Amino acid sequence: MVNSDAVTASSPTAAPPETAAIDVAHLVKLYKTTRAVDGVTFRIGPGSITGLLGGNGAGKTTTIAMIMGLVLPTSGRIQVLGHPMPEASAEVLGRMNFESPYVDMPMRLTVRQNLTIFGRLYAVENLRERIEQLAADLDLNDFLDRANGKLSAGQKTRVALAKALINQPELLLLDEPTASLDPDTADWVRQHLANYRKTHNATILLASHNMLEVERLCDRVIIMKRGRIEDDDSPDQIMARYNRATLEEVFLDVARGRVAEGAP
């Protein structure tokens, strides 16, 4: 296992504290006797895309939930966009957003109604124009006035992405954003995320089981296992350290307990 503090301090992809979009230090979350997150430390620089990898139960979703202020850490420190979380959540939440295919929006409301409600929650100015822009960018116009419950999986994913972008967030947290999508729709979503990062200098933290997606999108990969950071570096450096050609092979090595070459 790679020491997360050492990697974070030395990795060229790690950000110094004064510029970090996300700064997590010694984060722990206990559920009774279970350590869902166990001493996690990392910093993420602005304008980057970081992949958060790990099998089921690795602690990815709990870590994201604590960064969002939805789950209180047992111990440790979180700063988001320069503000402590969850203490200063009012200063931060309007500048960030979240997307997951596992979180449904109200099924009986139309796409337009859902986006209007979320836009008002974020106090989006010129909301009607913003929804029209997103509908054009994400190809929503054909079903903008259709109930959310009558959409296909791919359509729901595009609507969820529109919701996540409604406030033009500086920080975007994504949990399996292309799960259950056909290859064409998934590729389209990935391209839109890459374009959004580039045009808005946004920071994206992406939890995914799709290793090809992570290789394509991410500048940096943090691999978690049993609540701890197992490795943290660029995709190329991690693959080289495990002497593997793909991140999927690395993922299997980590899951099966193989140690990277040169690791202590």
TrEMBL record:
Coiled-coil region list: none
Keyword Nucleotide-binding assigned: yes
Keyword Nucleotide-binding applies: yes
SMART domains recorded: AAA
Pfam families referenced in this protein's UniProt entry, alphabetically: ABC_tran (PF00005)
Alphabetized GO MF terms: ATP binding; ATP hydrolysis activity
InterPro entries recorded: AAA+_ATPase, ABC_transporter-like_ATP-bd, ABC_transporter-like_CS, ABC_transporter_ATP-binding, P-loop_NTPase
Keyword field: ATP-binding, Nodulation, Nucleotide-binding, Transport
Residue stretches making up the ABC transporter domain: 22-251
Family classification: Belongs to the ABC transporter superfamily.
PANTHER family named in the record: ABC TRANSPORTER ATP-BINDING PROTEIN, ABC TRANSPORTER ATP-BINDING PROTEIN NATA
Function: Involved in beta-(1-->2)glucan export. Transmembrane domains (TMD) form a pore in the inner membrane and the ATP-binding domain (NBD) is responsible for energy generation.
Protein name: ABC-2 type transport system ATP-binding protein
